[in-house]
Design brief:
Elements (H helix, E strand, L loop, with lengths): L3 E8 L6 H15 L4 E8 H7 L3 H17 L8 E4 L5 H10 L4 H5 L2 H12 L11 H4 L1 H11 L4 E3 L5 H18 L7 E3 L29 H10 L17 H9 L2 H12 L4 H28 L1 H30 L7
Parallel strand pairs: 1-2, 2-3, 4-5
Bound molecules: tryptophan.
The site of tryptophan has 12 residues, from strand 1 and helix 8.
């Protein structure tokens, strides 16, 4: 049986938080150990430039994300772990795909539409104000990431489904014009992966500024957990675990029987302070060994760099011949050959 190619990218504009871990990183690391899969995971640093023009943030985020994945035990003997910008063929493919992509398709991309809507709401007379072409055509870059490696499955959050559909459209269009070159990818939305709430009870997300960094130092982690918003029920009053942020985080880490026991504690009126204390101790114990490896890696960036360069080498063993095929299909080739 040939292995399924699974591919996903992480935009390098932030520090990994508990929500990223539970929703994306943990399942990806599990897949990296699955012999039936050929996983490709990469730092989407060219995607970062679309929304972040602070070089220090892009640099720091790349370091933190790479260190996080390695500290959590990513199996780099099975998974190809690389930095997008180390694979220049992706950029070349982006242009080729741009030329088969309908502008109208990009007009419908929701990141772009949301930016236009925001301008219109603020009674701006230029609907495209502040929108760069990178934002406009970023589904094409994403399609190049995916199609380059003929990925079958692309694990992503719900907000990215449209982009995978666009990648399929673009692949189909290319195949129609130039002959079959690309596999049509499928989005995979984790159904057993939890969505965590953040400090304020909304979905944990960098854009809401309500995150708990995955490897926050112990003291800070305790402080942040203590800051999580609860209702004002007193100790002794029964509490509802549904919709409770503390419970949602606990559930993402604890075993079924532990979760049941906590549910019982809620019914019995456990104090919020107690829940917070228990939650902190529980996740701190689970994350401590990886946090130690993380801190060591951050102190040894050359080791991380080495891993990424090895990953890029493996990626390019595929991307170089793939681009060659695609170029030839389009007539970009040496004269006389
Ligand atoms: N755009 C994705 C995000 O913001 C990240 C990404 C870039 C990606 N390239 C990709 C995800 C290719 C999957 C496949 O989450």
């Amino acid at each position: 049986m040939s292995k399924a190619t699974v591919l996903t990218g992480i935009t390098t504009t932030g520090t990994p938080h508990l929500g990223n871990y539970v929703g994306a990183i943990r399942p990806a690391i599990e897949s990296s150990r699955d012999e039936n899969m050929a996983p490709f995971y990469f730092l989407a640093d060219y995607h970062a430039l679309i929304k972040c023009q602070d070089p220090a943030i892009v640099r720091q985020s790349s370091l933190e994300i790479a260190a996080t994945w390695l500290a959590l035990g990513l199996d780099t003997s099975n998974a190809v772990f690389y930095r997008q910008s180390d694979v220049p063929e992706i950029m070349e493919l982006t242009w080729i795909l741009t030329c088969v992509t309908a502008k109208g398709l990009m007009n419908r991309a929701h990141a772009y539409k949301a930016a236009v809507a925001e301008n219109e709401e603020s009674s701006e007379n230029d609907p495209d104000k502040g929108i760069n072409l990178g934002l406009f055509s970023y589904p094409v870059l994403m399609a190049a990431d995916i199609l380059m490696f003929n990925a079958h499955k692309v694990p992503v959050g719900k907000d990215q489904i449209q982009h995978i559909e666009m990648a399929r459209d673009i692949a189909g269009r290319f195949n129609h014009i130039y002959g079959e070159q690309f596999v049509l990818p499928e989005a995979v939305i984790g159904d057993n992966t939890a969505t965590l709430s953040g400090l304020d009870g909304r979905k944990m997300s960098k854009s809401y500024n309500n995150t708990i960094p995955l490897f926050a130092p112990e003291k800070r982690m305790r402080k942040l957990i203590n800051k999580i918003k609860t209702n004002s029920l007193e100790p002794g009053q029964p509490k509802d675990p549904e919709g409770c942020t503390l419970f949602s985080i606990y559930k993402a880490f604890a075993s079924t029987s532990e979760v049941e026991a906590m549910r019982q504690n809620y019914a019995n009126g456990i104090a919020w302070g107690e829940v917070k204390k228990h939650l902190f101790e529980y996740i701190n114990e689970q994350l401590a060994p990886a946090r130690e490896r993380y801190e060591a890696l951050i102190q040894a960036p050359e080791h991380i760099e080495q891993q990424l360069l090895e990953g890029a080498k493996k990626a390019r063993a595929i991307s170089v011949p793939m681009l060659q095929k695609v170029r030839t299909a389009t007539g970009i080739q040496p004269i006389g050959s």
